[in-house]
Amino acid sequence: MPDESSVLTGHTDVICSTSIERIVTGRNVALERIKSVIQQLDDLSILTASIGGGTAKDWAMRQGHRYDCWLTEKTQAAIKAITCNIDRSVWRDLMLKSGMLALMDAQARDQWYKSLEGDELPAISEDNILSTFRQLHHTKHEVFERGIINVFKGLSWDYKTNSPCCFGRKIIINNLVTHNRWGFSLNWGWRRDQLADLERMLFLLDGKPVPDNRGDITTRLMEHIRDNPGLSVYEDNYFAIRYFQKGTGHITFSCPVLVDKMNDIVAKHYPGMLAKEL
C-alpha cells in the first residue's frame, strides 16, 4: 500500500503525514486559545461595562469598525465563524502545495473554490485531509483529460482550420480579444480561462512545471498587447497567436509532438473520430 504522501501528490516532498499531523494539531491548539481569548474578552467586557466603560465592542474597536471582529461576539457564533475561516485557508494552502490545482481545468477549479465557500466545508482533520486528497489523486488523470476535451469541444466548427476530429497545427477561437479606437484588449471570461487551460495542458504534457497564474499565457498575452499596440501577433515556446479586430485568435502550435499527445487523449474519449493520418 502506498504511503500517505504518495497518495496525496504522487511524490514525496510536498505533503507528508507528519505535516498533516502538525497542521491538524496546530489548528486545534489555535482554536482552543482563540476560544480562551474570547472568554477573557467577555469577562473584561462585563467588568468595564459595570464601571461605565462599555464593552469590548466599544473600547477594542477602531472608530467605524465596531462590528468587524469576531473576537467580540458570543463564543459559539465566533468560534464557528473563525473555525470556518481557518479551515478554508488551510484547505486552500493544502491544495496549492499538493500541486493538484495545476492539473485542474477552469471548471474543476471553480467547483473547488465554490465548495470552500459553501456551508458544508469539511473540518480540517487527518481523516478528512487524507480522504479528500486520495479522491483527488484518484481522479486527477480524468480531470486533466477533461481539461483537454473541454478546450476541444469549445472550438467552433465554422472555421475550416478547426477539425471536428482532432487538434490541427492551428486552431481558431472566437471572442479572444476586443478592439476599439484605443487598440486591442484581452477579453475576460471563459475564453480566457480556456487559453490558460490549453497552456497548462501543454506544460504538463511536456513534463514541465506549470507557471504560476500570475505569469501564465493570459497574463503574458495581456502585457504583450498593452506594451505593443502596433502588433497583432504574440509568440512563445508553445504558441504563435495572431489576433484580429473581429475578436478571433489564430493559435498555431509550436510543438507538433504535444499536439499528437493531445490528439491521443481526444481519440481516447471519442474512439473512431481521429483520422489515421493527420
Automatic annotation (TrEMBL):
Any idea where the DUF4942 domain is?
Answer: 85-271
InterPro entries registered for this protein in UniProt? DUF4942 (IPR031339)
Pfam families documented for this protein: DUF4942
Superkingdom assignment: Bacteria
List the protein's name. DUF4942 domain-containing protein
> Which organism does this sequence originate in?
Buttiauxella izardii
Q: What is the lineage of its organism?
A: Bacteria, Pseudomonadati, Pseudomonadota, Gammaproteobacteria, Enterobacterales
